[in-house]
């Protein structure tokens, strides 16, 4: 593991984006694992800039996102599908058929988890996985105590997580009670992991 301390958010985003850009140049059909949340937004901005300048292309890139709320419509402001469109996919030359976000609206959620794992495995493994981290150390919706062998699974959101996320919804009742998340199994199988963390509140994690 290499720990890179940066002087600010912009430098952190730039350094992380450089690793991803290099990967994309070396392998044009790279498999990128992507995260939502506030931290990677700066990285995505740098990738959008590089794509607009013609330095990188997403034409053959495949993406696999970490997580999604269960039962939320894809055009809801808090949907991670919408987040990815708004912060990356709608601004680069990616083929949306090659982008994957877990299906939180599936009628058979267990089947959706199994199919998501099969899709990841059909790609071999993730080449570069982008991660944020929660203040308590959560990755995706995997809480620190979750086991390393888990594939994609359904998580009951704790009251703490729902409370923390309620600021993004009109009220606590609107905050979903479950989420679908990639497990640490496929995350840890990624060839490279770029974890971005910003701010004192993340230092302990
Ligand atoms: C989102 C995700 C979450 C976030 C974490 C940190 O896909 O995986 O685990 O990375 O909650 O969120 P921010 O970056 O908003 O502090």
Can you offer a commentary on this structure?
This protein is 31% helix and 14% strand. With 205 residues, the chain is an alpha/beta fold. The chain is globular and about 45 Å long. The two termini are 15 Å apart. It binds fructose -6-phosphate.
Determine the fraction of residues in helical runs and give it as a percent range. 25-40%
Weakly predicted, low-confidence segments:
none
Bound molecules: fructose -6-phosphate
Mean pLDDT across all residues, rounded? Answer: 96
Strand content: 5-15%
Determine Rg (CA atoms, Å).
Answer: 16 Å
Biggest sheet: strand arrangement: 4-2-1-5-8
Q: Distance between the terminal alpha carbons, to the nearest Å?
A: 15 Å
Oligomer: single chain
Biggest sheet statistics = 5 strands, parallel
| Overall geometry | globular
Number of strands: 8
Number of H/I helices: 6
> What sequence of helices (H) and strands (E) makes up the elements?
HEHEEHEHEEHEHE
Report the structural category.
alpha/beta
